[in-house]
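Tutorial handout. Part one gives the primary structure; part two gives the three-dimensional structure as tokens.
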Amino acid sequence: MTIPVKDAMVRCYNTEPTCRVEREWPQEVLTGKGNWHIKWPSVIVRHATDFVQKQTVDLNHTTLFYREEGKCAYCREYTVNGTKDHVIPTSKGGPNDWTNVVWACKDCNTRKANKMPKGMWKPKVPVFKPTYWELLKNRKKFPLYIQTEDWLPYVEWLDWEGDVIITMKKHLDIGPNVV
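Part two.
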């Protein structure tokens, strides 16, 4: 996951850091304090991983896409341009939560409109609230984009099934910045 550099600096250098710097960019950060020399973090690592078990999975287009592995719940065709469809339409009292929402291609969603889940409009996949680990298992089937080769050692232990794509071959010259 990419986070803003200011967040990375706070997480690593505040009075009670939650992360540590694992790898650094070659450029120094201009801190405004002449005696404090640090480099830009390239890879930061959390001190603890137990936070994951406490997290609930937000319902949004990205997480819904991964729950369904990018396939329409009705026709089972793969689509990156899918939509969120309410199995029981909200106009008929259906809730807007994991137990009533599926990934649907635009054609199926348009044709289903506000019909109830009967016949061809009954989802061909289970409709459930996924755990973080279930989503991660599905996410690993898709490409992972990393900024530099610095991330490769951390990706190897993830058992990533999809392609790992490096978006920058070399470190960028970030230039002077003040934190």
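Part three, for discussion. The CA atoms of residues 43 and 153 lie 11 Å apart. Residues 1-48 form one domain.
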